[in-house]
Hints:
Chain A has an 8-stranded antiparallel beta barrel with strand order 1-2-3-4-5-6-7-10. Helix content of chain A is about 15%, strand content about 60%. Chain A is mostly beta strands. Chain A is built from 4 helices and 10 strands, in the order H-E-H-E-E-H-E-E-E-H-E-E-E-E. Chain B is an alpha/beta fold. Chains A and B meet through helix 2, strand 3, helix 3, strand 4 and strand 5 of A and strand 27 and helix 5 of B.
Amino acid sequence: MRNLILGLFLVIIPSLALGAEPRSDRPHWSLELKGGAFFPGAANWSKFYDSSYTGEYGGALSYKVLRQLEVGLEGSYLRSSGKGQLPLHAAAGSTVQAGEVTYELFPLDLFVLARGVFSEDQLLVPYAAAGWSRVFYREGVKSQGSTRGSVNGYHARAGVQLLLDGVEPETSHDMYRDYGVHHTYLFLEAKYLRAMADTVPDGSVNIGGTSCLAGFLFEF
Amino acid sequence: MNYTDKGGHMRIRCSAWLTAVTLVFLTISAPGAAKGEDLIVEHNPTTGHFSTIQAAIDSAKNRLVTAPTTSFAIKVKADPIEYSGTFTPISNVPIIGESTAGTFLSNSGSGTIINLNGVSSVTIRNFTFRSALIGISATSSSAINITNNVFQLSTASTAILVQNSTSSTIINNTFFSNGTAISTTSDIIITNNIFSTNTTAILVQAALAQPTYNDFFANAANGIAPLDAHSIPNTLVADANPSFVDSANRDFHLQAGSPCVGTGNPQIHNPFGSTTSDMGAYGGPDSDTVLATGPATVTNLTSSPVALDTATMALKWDPTADSKVTEYRVYYGTSSRNYDLSGSSPLVVPLGTTTATLSNLPLTPPAVPKTPALTITPLNQALQLSWTPVPGATGYRIYHSTNSFGTSTLPSYIEVDGATVSSYQITGLNNGTHYFVAIAAVAQTEFFAAVTTVIDNAIVSAPGTANESAYSLETFQVVGDPQVSDISVPQENFPETLAPFPNLKGEGCFIATAAYGFYSAPQVQALRDFRDRFLLTNAPGRAFVAWYYHYGPRAAHYINLHPWLKAPVRVALFPLVVGALILNGSAPLAKIAIVMLAALLSAILFQRKMLLQSGGMR
């Protein structure tokens, strides 16, 4: 345990950040661009979409209220193609996958994010966020039209950011000089989204799920 | 030099390598090793090529001074634009066109095109000569070889003028509508030529060995008489018309059936048939090589059965445009691309006929195939059928009906051809209607056929060679009585509107969706259409929709929680649904009439109610 604490301490102390150049001011905004896999929470998903996950792509913009506290807005897009179901056959106990279906989600998240950053040169920065979500959905059946709607929900995510400034100090300097980007991070995160939507003819389903994402974060 | 020095070792090693390389270079470039080089002539020359034939001749002449053992050949690229002027070849340098039909020489209607004077061993080959007073003039020369040329100058011209030039040959040329085709003062070899519609074919001004194997047609004077026994006309062939493909358009290829096909000098063979010899510019070993790859393949081959239960197959194809083709061969058998050559296959079909009927095909009834196992997947207004192909089956029959059926009460069927086909979709069905479906396998004798074109019918079957085209695309036909398996056990299923997973509610009519059970119900669809056409197209309508989208889900949720409400809600929605259906589907005038009628009815009912309240009579 003591070794673990020591290790964590070592990675967050500023002296380990390789060659990062100190900036005269601190950043106020951060922009995330990310992608990864989304594992839907709905049971039987893989029966209709031939996979237990689908791709997710998104971005987030947040304002740094404090150096350790941000509020922001995140948007994502998920799409999957698969087969449809036959409700009357399903009601009779026969599960049939047929036709061609496209399923799209557009989660829009309003979040508060806390970062464990204690120095501008800190190599690894843990963070966590949570907030309200409005999930827009669209389902299309080939030759039959589409259905769309939106529901409320919530989300939580956590991950770790790796400061890249020390890897390419010259590039980092140029990014700051040309674009005002203070720091660039590579990050990994896990996200949980829950949004219950009514289903036909009755009942409801969580159209959210769990995501594993990676991306770049730019502070400016 | 310090031999122990490492750098010195390197220098010695490099020096040895240089010496070896130099020796090899000197060896391969040593005098005495003759080599050949083509000098290319084209109208827009690339680097190293020449724009005129004379420039290439001059280049060869200059270079032979310093490299006398080099054998040059002048190759003239085919081009629709003529190469014009007078050329004076030099000894030992042949001048060869890329193709007789595509390489043209002229001299503006006057003068001589090729002037050979005091030269030897010159070949002039594969040109079409036009528009000059003299095509080729050979004077005091020897071993001049003129082959595979077309001469069509003018009625005042001389195609070839030979003076005091021995050991020369004029072989496989076509002379058409010239003044004099050949005028010679020397004894030269003249064979395999066609002289057609010239004023004088051969003007002999000295002793000349008998020209042999030439065709003389419609010349004002042949110039020599009598003709040799192998020239045309002769005692066997009276009609000497060479049957050019299209002489008016300068296509001097021979049509099938021409007396000049296969009747040339047997010592001079065509490139596309080792035993045949044609007269004219497109015969002999150096004729245009376009035929070396074989004649064109047959296109659009189709087949049809003469009668379903007979062993007969009718074939039809497009006629070939290849003038060299003399016949078609029809290959057939019971195995694809593996035709039976032992019996009557291939069937020979003469040129001009593009159909063939294969009758009395050997029918061996196939075994009755096994019954396939059928799988049905319901779709929207359709049923998707799939099965595992049965060995020996050549097709399948699909039976379907809204009534149950058995072997003795079979409904009409859909015929699906193909041994490997394993799926079929029955479309145009009604959602919710139950259908009974069964399948049976069919086995029938199959015959496959393909057709080739043939140049020389004396050569045995060899598709894909210079004499015979490759097989056409294959066609096949089932013949004879079919053997049908038992039907599979009829399965019952019904088509249905598809829903995505998860089947989420949309921003449609939430209440109607909850009441009617599913989003795609026709009543819900009618209300959606009404929304799209009559509400979302105006501001008040959009405001209502927005209000409804805010509160509608709550009502729908309440209905879902209390299913007993669905029936009364459906009753309440009924007038709206009917109204929506009428407005969605009727003409504008009808809509106005309906609205006015509804208003009138409401007014009458209101007045009647008021009357009752005031104590009036009903």
